[in-house]
Amino acid sequence: EVQLLESGGGLVQPGGSLRLSCAASGFAFSSSAMSWVRQAPGTGLEWVSAISRDSATTYYADSVKGRFTISRDNSKNTLYLQMNSLRVDDTALYYCAEVIGGTGYWGQGTLVTVSS
Amino acid sequence: DFQMTQSPSSLSASIGDRVTITCRASQGISNDLAWYQQKPGKVPKLLIYAASTLQSGVPSRFSGTRSGTDFTLTISSLQPEDVATYYCLKYNGAPKAFGQGTKVEIK
User: Fold this and answer.
1) Do A44 and B46 touch (CB under 8 A)?
2) Are A71 and A98 in contact (CB under 8 A)?
3) Cβ–Cβ contact B53 with A under 8 A
4) Cα separation of A20 and A7, whole Å?
5) Cα gap A100→B94, rounded to integer Å
6) Lowest mean pLDDT: which of A23-27, A76-80, A99-103?
7) What is the pLDDT at residue B60?
8) Cβ atoms of residues B22 and B7 within 8 Å
9) A6 neighbourhood in chain B, CB within 8 Å
10) Does A102 touch chain B (CB under 8 A)?
11) What is the DSSP string of A39-94?
12) pLDDT more than 70, % of chain A
């Protein structure tokens, strides 16, 4: 059974940092490019960041460029998102997902709330 | 900047109606487009990828087509369980981009 299990969300003050993790199992994680997608309350889906299977290439949405860093550890089947300089408008449910290969693999999400 | 423009933002249709949702890419993206269905409080579900390939287990009343930079999701006969918000996603290269979403309701 395929599982993507996100963790690391929580309440943080503006300007703070969080590190999200996504533990993958049940599929060839090391052969899969991975993405982070977020959804603010009551709004649509927003692609945040992506990383190639070998970590050689990373992509970021303009809204997070310079503040967020995506990485992965294929030996641990884990995807990460380091989020710095967090803003109120980064408040959202953050999903890790495989969106290129037509697998439809998504986690359940982890909630990040940025508030003073 | 690349943009995916999805329309309409919402629609209301009767059971059995044919429903179409469109996404227009601001530049050519080949067939690198997927359609997702999201029900309230649920994780998005992949319906179609590569513009027209139906994901395993998805009912055949869902279909996708491409004409140039215009992509269409069609529900041939709307069912009560199809009430959801639908999103297109340009998934290859960078940036990846979702459409704004289309909320489908029953009239």
Assistant:
1) no
2) no
3) yes
4) 6
5) 12
6) A99-103
7) 98
8) yes
9) none
10) yes
11) E-TTS-EEEEEEE-TTSS-EEE-TTTTTTEEEEEETTTTEEEEEE-S--GGG-EEE
12) 100
- Looking at chain B, how many residues does it have? 107
Q: How far apart are CA A38 and CA A109, in angstroms?
A: 8
> Å from A56 to nearest chain B CA?
14
Q: What is the pLDDT of residues A37-64, one digit of tens each?
A: 999 999 999 999 999 999 999 999 999 9
Q: Determine whether the interchain pair A44/B100 forms a contact, defined as Cβ–Cβ distance below 8 Å.
A: yes
Q: How far is CA B14 from the centre of its chain?
A: 19
Q: What rounded mean pLDDT belongs to chain B?
A: 96
Cβ distance B85 to A44 less than 8 Å, yes or no, reads yes
* B73 contact A CB<8A: no
The answer to whether B95 faces chain A, any CB pair under 8 Å, is yes
Question: What average pLDDT does the segment A112-116 reach?
Answer: 97
pLDDT tens per residue across span A3-29: 999 999 999 999 999 999 999 999 999
pLDDT exceeds cutoff 90 at B43: yes
Decide if A95 and B85 are in contact by the 8 Å CB cutoff: no
How many angstroms separate the Cα of B20 from the Cα of each of A44, A71, B5, B10, B75? 19, 38, 14, 11, 6
Residues B25-29 have a mean pLDDT of 92
Q: B43 and A107 in contact by Cβ < 8 A?
A: yes
Question: Would you call B97 an interface residue with chain A, using a CB distance cutoff of 8 Å?
Answer: yes
